[in-house]
Every structure is written in structure tokens, then in C-alpha cells.
Amino acid sequence: MLTFTIRRLLLSIPTLLFISLIIFMLLQLAPGDPMAQVPLTVPPEVKQKMREALGLGQPVYVQYWKWLVQFFWIEPQVFIDYLTNRSFLLGWLPDTALYQGELRVISWQTRSPVMDIVAQRMPQTMWVVGLSYVVGIVIAIPIGIYSAYRHYSIFDQAGTFVTMIGFSIPPFFTGPLLIVIFSVYLGWLPSIYDTTHVVNDWASFKIQLQQMIMPVMVLALQTTAQISRYMRGAMLDNLNQDYVRTARAKGLSESVVVMGHVLRNSMIPVVTVIALGMPAVFGGAIITENVFKVNGIGQLLLTALFANDLPMVMTLTFIFAILIVLFNLIADVLYGLLDPRIRYD
Amino acid sequence: MTDQATEIETFSALTDKEPQKPPRSQWRDVWDQFRKHKGAVFGGGFLIFITLGVIFGPWLWDVDPKGLDIRNKNWRPIYTLLWDSSVTAGWAHPFGTDQLGRDILAQMIAGGRVSMAVGWLAMGLALVIGTAIGVIAGYFKRLDFWLMRFTDLVLSLPILPLVLLAVTLFRQPLNSRFGPEGGMFILIVAVIGLTSWMQTARIVRGDILALKEREFILAARSIGTTPGKIIRRHLLPNVISPIMVSATLGLATAIITESALSFLGVGFPSDYPTWGKLLADAVQRMQDFPERVLLPGIAISLTVLSVNYLGDGLRDALDPRIRGR
């Protein structure tokens, strides 16, 4: 198992390199000019110098190499320095001071390091996306179990119908719909996510909860629909197996049979689906963040795209790619760990 | 004596000259199973209805969707008269008009045309690419490894960010060549098609790998059938059912992706209605005119829902193991 994990980890490096090359080449084909906003009165030679200052003067492969070095060598150094210097968790370690002022990936919009902005935006996305995923799973699994156990019952029919609806209604419709109902007509919840809001007592915690409910539920609906379908399917596959009959025959109570035997076996495929679905939720968060004006990384990607900020777009898209590759790896490893029938070596 | 008589009667079926029931074709069985799935029949019916509606709608309701009529702006839909008789509404514009006086019913029909056309074409493109790659990878052993590594690689690309990227980056050159609407149409169909073929390729490859080892392929090969003929005559008809199921899924994703792009503001130009575009434009004024969000949103959701149900029913109907029961 360990050799398999290490092999997969090593294999993911060329994959990631290739993905970064694809994204980089796509951006190179971009016809947009970062100097398009500069006034026409600026003479062309000055513009050329400005372009070179952004790192655009050199050949393509030099630009790509520089980005690679900055992303994979210099940014980790900055991160380690941050960990040993200021972070709460590892701040007691001696300061490493690896970063010696080399050039980092610089955003063309703000002229500040891209990763600093990403680090500012990440917590909002993590809170909304992570919480919605947890909520979605917590709702989905009991629904899946019960509708498989009572196959063809009214609950099963209704559950399948509701998950089908959740599957079909896109988040850019559920979002505005919830805003119309709960913010406009009922006035219970704010329609805009306020990131500057600080939680320091119960009242402010309540406000934070109120502003998080709608984006979290919109994303959770998608997750619930998907995972409860998988859960139901996996439970149905297992409920007809011979070992279930044996377990009942030896007089185990129904709850032990279902929750102990069947559920544990059915969770194997579901856990991998949960791991595989994680990056897709980050993708879906782009739309949800746009609807509820959460300034997370999805919204950052959109604004960077419209502002022609290529280093930012490149880095963010690559972060999404890392997430996908990472969670694919986690899913494969989990599958091997949970299912003794799977042997990779 | 009597023993012998019963024995003969038991085996009388063996002496039948021809089958007692007329033979049934496979597609008749499929249709019978499909009819049992109520949701699928309903979904299929709704999909046909909405497709015909957007194709023939402009002849039935011949109001120009782009025609401005500023005097009659902000009409409410006709049903608001049920509870509020003071609103401006009427049969001249059953779904109301928008802030520039454009008829919303006509816009919905025109928008549905674009959304459905994008959906069908992008799905077709994805199916062609996916089937081609799946068949080639499954049939030709030498190409299998590299084609499947390529598929895995594309699967690990972040699709939505890349689609956003591609649409923003290539908008300008295509617009200048094919006009703002045609260019965007080609771009969106191509981008969605090129990013959603992977599941089809994987499923088709798996089925081809299993089919390739069967006796009828061996027989075909032994009489000297060329690989191209084997694929067309023997393999493709046998993988048609997984292709049809992934086609329905592809149609649903294509419609949603197109609407999402329009919603995020990177889709079609602003005076060119699609369902996603209508929804996105209406979000600004949804406090006063919630129906402008609801109508295109319901249209998208119902279409996708019906397509998903259709896919569910097709999967059951085309699976011979389920069909027997």
C-alpha cells in the first residue's frame, strides 16, 4: 500500500507539470494585452519597457520556467517561513528565513504576490465549501440508507424525486430563488455574504450563521443529491448479498445487520465518491460565490479573468488542478485501504 | 399407457414447427420496459415538447424577441392579474415585457432555441469524440495505453475554470471571423464538447474490450473482415446503449454549462437571448420582477430534469438484466 501511494505521488508530478504546461500554453494564445488599459499618450517604447517589467519580454519557455521556479521553489519557501515565523501552530520552531527576497508570482492587477491574495481569499471559500460539503454528506447518508432499506416505499420514491430535482436545478437558479424568498419576501437572511464581519460574541455569531446558511445550502443541495444516490445504490447492492442473509439467520438484530454489516460495506464506494467530488464542489463554488458575492477564490478567478491578469489566472487554475489530482489520489488510496479485496501491489 | 401419454404431452413443445408467439425484436422489448418507467416517459415527452416548441414557436408566436417597445415596458405576466388587478398585464404579452419592452415569451422561445441547439450540438460533438477515442483505445491495443493516459489527464483538468478561460480568451478572434453571435456559438459548442467526452470514452472502451474477445468477433475476423468493418458492423451496434445513456447525461451537462457561462457573463452578447442570459439579466431586478428569474430558471430546470429522467429510464430499458424482471 505504501509503495502504491508513493508511486502514485511520483506519477502525479509529471501529470501536474503537463497540466501546468497546457494552462500556460492556453494563456500564451490569449490575444488580450495587459497594456490595453494604458493611455494612448504613453509612447510605444515606454510601453515596451512596462511589458518587460511584467516579465513579458522573454521567450515563452523562459517565462514558463520562471513561473515553475516561482511556484514550486520560492512560494513553498515563503510558506515555510510563514509557518515557522508567525503561524499559531508551528510558531515555536526557530525562524527558517529561507526566502531571501527573490521575485514571486506577481499579480498584474495589484502588483502584489498572487499567493498572498489567495491566502486572504482561501478561508471564505474553505468555510463555505467545506461546511456545505459536510452538511451535504450528513444529510445525504441517512437519506440514502433509509430509502435503500425501504426500497420502493413512499419515502424512497419521494427521496429519489427530491434528489433528482436537486441534481437538475443548477445553483445559479437555486441561489437567486432562495434570495428572492428569504431575503426579499421574508427578510430573514442577508443576500450578500459580508466577509469583513468579525465573530466575537453570540450576536455576531448569529449574524455569521445567517449569512452562511444560503450559500452553504445551495452547494449542499448538489452534494446531497449526488451522494444520496450513490449511497442508495451501494446499499441496494449489498442488501441482497448472501452475508446479509447469514447475519439475519444467526439472529442479529436488524439494526446491527443494517448499520454494522451492510453500511460498512456500502460506505467503501461512497467514501471514494466523496473524495472525488470535492474538487467539483470547488468548481461549483465559482458560481455560488458569484451569486452571493462571497469574495473567495472563485470570485478572484473571475475578476482576474476579466482583468486579463494572467499570472493570477494561471496560478488559480493550477491550484484547482492540484486539488483534483490530490483528491483523485486520496480516493484511490482510500479505496485500497478500505476494501481488502483491492490489492494494488 | 397413461404414463407415456403425459410424457408425450410434456415434450409436445419440442415438436412445434414454429414459435407459438410471434418473435419480438430487441427494440420492442426496450420500448416495453421504457414505458413502465413513468418518469422517463414523462421526461422524454417533455423533451420532445420543448424541442418542438422552440423550433416551431416563432411561427406560433411571431413577435420579434429583440423588438423594443418602450411604451409597453415592464408588463407583468398574465397570471398576476389573478391576485392583483392593478398591474399592467394582458394577452398581448402573456409572460410580460422586460425593462426595454421586449416580449418575454418571444425571448424565452428564442433563448430556448439557442440553449437547446448548444446542448444538442455540444452533446453530439462530445459523443463523436468520446466514441471514437473509446473504440480506438479498446480495439487497437497499441494505442490503448496512451489514449487512456490522455483521457485520465483531461479528466484531471479543472473543467469550469478552463472553460471560462477558453471562452474569454478566444472570444475576440472568433468574433471577428464569424460575427459576435456565430463566433460565440461555435466557441461554446466546441469548448463544451471538447471538455465532456471523457466519460463516454471510458465506458465505450470498457465495453469494446469485453466485446472484442467474444466469438462473433473472432468469426468475423476469421473470414477476413477488416478492422474498420468489424467496428462499424459488429462493435458499434453493440455499444449503442451505453452511448445513448451518456448522451442524455451529456445533453443535461451541456445545457447547464452553457447557462452557467451566460450567467457568469462570459457567454453570448447581451442582446442575444439564451435561458442563462435571461436569468442573469433578471437577477438585478428580481425584487420587483421575480418572474423574470423564475421563468428561464424553471425552463432550464425542467428541461434538465426531464433529460435526467429520460436517461434513468433508458438505462433501465437498455440493460437486459433489468429488462427481464
What does this structure look like?
The complex is a heterodimer of chains A (345) and B (325). By secondary structure, chain A is mainly alpha-helical. Helices cover 73% and strands 0% of the residues of chain A. Chain A is built from eleven helices and no strands. The longest helix of chain A is centred in the last third of the chain and has 39 residues, at 254-292. Chain A is globular, with a radius of gyration of 25 Å. Chain B is an all-alpha fold and 325 residues long. Helices cover 70% and strands 0% of the residues of chain B. Chain B has 13 helices and no strands. The two termini of chain B are 40 Å apart. The mean pLDDT of chain B is 82. Chain A binds chain B through residues 15, 18-19, 22-23, 26-27, 29-32, 164-165, 167-170, 172-173, 176-177, 179-180, 184, 279, 283-284, 286-287, 290-291, 301-302, 305-306, 313, 316-317, 320-321, 323-325, 328, and chain B through 39, 152-153, 156-162, 164-166, 168-170, 172-173, 252, 256, 259-260, 263-264, 266, 276, 279-280, 283, 286-287, 290, 293-294, 297, 300-301, 304-305, 308-309, 312.
Write the layout of secondary structure elements.
The complex is a heterodimer of chains A (345) and B (325).
Chain A: H1 2-28, H2 44-53, H3 60-85, H4 114-149, H5 154-168, H6 171-185, H7 202-239, H8 242-249, H9 254-292, H10 297-306, H11 310-338
Helix pairs in contact in A: 1-11, 4-5, 4-7, 4-9, 5-7, 6-7, 6-9, 7-9, 8-9, 9-10, 9-11, 10-11
Chain B: H1 2-10, H2 26-36, H3 38-60, H4 104-139, H5 141-155, H6 159-194, H7 198-212, H8 215-222, H9 227-235, H10 240-263, H11 275-283, H12 290-318, H13 320-323
